Amino acid sequence: MNAIALIALAFAMSMDAFAAAIVQGTHKRTVSVATALKVGATFGITEMLMPMMGYFVGRFAHAFVQAFDHWLSFILLAGIGGHLIYETIGDGGDEMPKPTSFTKTLLTAFATSIDAMIVGVSLAFLSVNIWLAGALIGLTTFLMTTLGVSVGATLGKKVGKIAQIMGGVVLIAIGVFILVTHLLNH
C-alpha cells in the first residue's frame, strides 16, 4: 500500500469518529481544550489499537485465504464504506451517539473503531507496515476528533453526516484500488 493510499485510509477511518465528536460538541455550549484533548486521545488510541488487532488476526488467517485476499479486502472495505454511507443517509442516519461521560465516549470510540479492526484484517493481506498504519490512523483520528468536538457546536450535525459519507466513499475507493491493482498485476 503506497503512502497516498495509507493517508487516505487514515482519514477515512477517522471520519466516523470525527462525526461522533462533532455530535458530542453540538451538545455543549463550549468545549475546553482539556476536554477536546481527552476526547481526541480516547478516540485516537482506540482507533490505533483496533486495526492492529485485526491485522494480527488477519496474518494468522492469511495462509488460508491468500488466493482470494484481494477480493476479501475489496468486499470488506466496500462493505464498510457502503454501510457507513447507508447509516448516514438511511434510516439510522438521524441517530448518532451522544457521548457526555468518559464511559460513553469510550464506548462510542470502540463502536466507531470496529470498522478499523475489520480494515486491519484486510491490511494483513497487503504489504503494509501495521505499526505505521496504526499510528497514522490513531494520530489522524486524534486530530480529527479533537477538532470535531471543538467546533461541533459551531458546525452542527450536518457536517458530521457529510464527513461520514466522504469516509465511506474513500473506503470504497481504496477497496476498488486494491482489487484493480491486484487484478492488473497478476
Overview of the structural elements:
Keywords: Cell membrane, Ion transport, Manganese, Membrane, Signal, Transmembrane, Transmembrane helix, Transport. Residues 1-19 form the signal peptide. It is found in: Cell membrane. The structure is a single chain. This protein is mainly alpha-helical. Helices cover 83% and strands 0% of the residues. The protein is built from six helices and no strands. Helix 1 packs antiparallel against helix 4 (102-123). The protein is elongated and about 55 Å long. The model is unreliable at 93-99 (pLDDT under 50).
Using DSSP, what is the number of strands?
0
Percent in strands: under 5%
Distance between the termini: 16 Å
Instruction: State mean pLDDT (0 to 100 scale).
Output: 81
**Residue share in helices?**
over 70%
**Global geometry:** elongated
User: What is the succession of H and E elements?
Assistant: HHHHHH
pLDDT < 50 stretches: 93-99
- Give a quick account of the main beta sheet: strands, pairing sense, barrel closure: none
Number of contiguous helices: 6
**Estimated radius of gyration:** 16 Å
Membrane topology: Multi-pass membrane protein
Subcellular location: Cell membrane
Protein name: Putative manganese efflux pump MntP
Pfam family, one: Mntp
State the main characteristics.
186 residues, mainly alpha, single chain, 6 helices, 0% strand, elongated
Helix/strand layout:
Layout: H1 3-26, H2 33-65, H3 69-89, H4 102-123, H5 130-155, H6 157-185
Short description:
The chain has 186 residues and is mostly helical. It is built from 6 helices and no strands.
